[in-house]
Amino acid sequence: MAVRLPFDDIRDLVGGMPAIPREARPARPGLGRLGELAGTVAAIQGRARPSAERALVCLFVASHGIASGPDRIGQARATLASFSDGTAPANAACTNAALGFRAFELALDLPTGDIAREPAMDERACVATMAFGMEAVAGGADLLALGAAGPDADLAAGAVAAALTGEPPDSWLPRGAFTEDEDAIRRALARSGTRGGDPLATLAELGGRDLAALAGAILAARHGRVPVVLDGFAATVAAALLQALDPAALDHCFAGRAGPHPGEARLLARLGLPPLLPDWGIEAPGVSGALALGLVKAATAVAAG
């Protein structure tokens, strides 16, 4: 009898995803793309009319061993503190749109491995973090926006994107990345040998807890028939990992916006997800997700009359 590995449970969940009909009729005639958006939300939810009573923005904050620069954990903690005391732009955006908001800390004092020298996580830790991310839908949300808020989330996401696409890492790095960051990612890709390989192994080798939690949340939302808005490059890369496992894995997902990360629009085009919002250059975590989720929520209200 074959021994089951932790990733086998994730593959079972991917294989058991409910089918989603994305070619939905408008929920109400005369509303153009707004009606189409509401109709698609209803189809994802499996309802005659879409629901947006419990819309929620979730952000994941983690620390990465590959990070350069001073006091990265301190920066991440400051971000979390701003969420807790309600002073972050995301708090205001969610309050304005009557959205719920949660920020999840992912073992900030225990950075993942330095991927230039070792795997970020082992298989068991990766699956455990994906399971933690699945808690984002445990409260019964009917709409969900997902993103990462740590200072180095896009750095790890760039390494994963380079491995998934086979393109040079410099095309997937955030603006302002250091030369040593690019060199470290090149060493990580050479060390791990994950280019074109198993997406879950790529996540464990090169990703971070934030990417793992995001992938888990997206997967859990699919099983719960909860529409997801992807907020930012890290969430988009986490979604790309799932699509690499199953081409239909993102049929319940929308892209919030394309930018300001230089590779985000290109990756969204690969995923077949046109953004709901233009690139307004918003870098504050959670704000674009809240604005896009507010648009989806408004579409459901208008369609319902």
Write the layout of secondary structure elements.
Layout: H1 6-15, H2 32-45, E1 55-62, H3 72-84, H4 89-96, E2 100-106, H5 123-133, E3 143-148, H6 153-165, H7 179-192, H8 199-206, H9 209-223, E4 228-230, H10 233-245, E5 253-257, H11 264-271, E6 275-277, H12 287-304
Helix pairs in contact: 2-12, 4-12, 5-9, 6-7, 6-8, 6-10, 8-10, 9-10, 10-11
Short key terms for the protein model shown above:
12 helices, 305 residues, 6 strands, alpha/beta, single chain, Rossmann fold
Largest sheet strand order = 2-1-3-4-5-6
What level of helicity do the residues show? 40-55%
Write the CATH homologous superfamily. Nicotinate-nucleotide-dimethylbenzimidazole phosphoribosyltransferase (CobT), large domain
The total number of structural domains is: 1
Radius of gyration: 18 Å
* Gross morphology: globular
Quickly count the helices.
12
Q: Which percent range describes the beta-strand content?
A: 5-15%
- Label the CATH architecture: 3-Layer(aba) Sandwich
CATH topology: Rossmann fold
- Major sheet size, sense and barrel closure: 6 strands, parallel
Question: What would you call the structural class?
Answer: alpha/beta
H/E element sequence = HHEHHEHEHHHHEHEHEH
Instruction: Count the beta strands.
Output: 6
For the terminal residues, how far apart are their CA atoms? 57 Å
Unreliable residue stretches: none
The level 1 CATH classification is: Alpha Beta
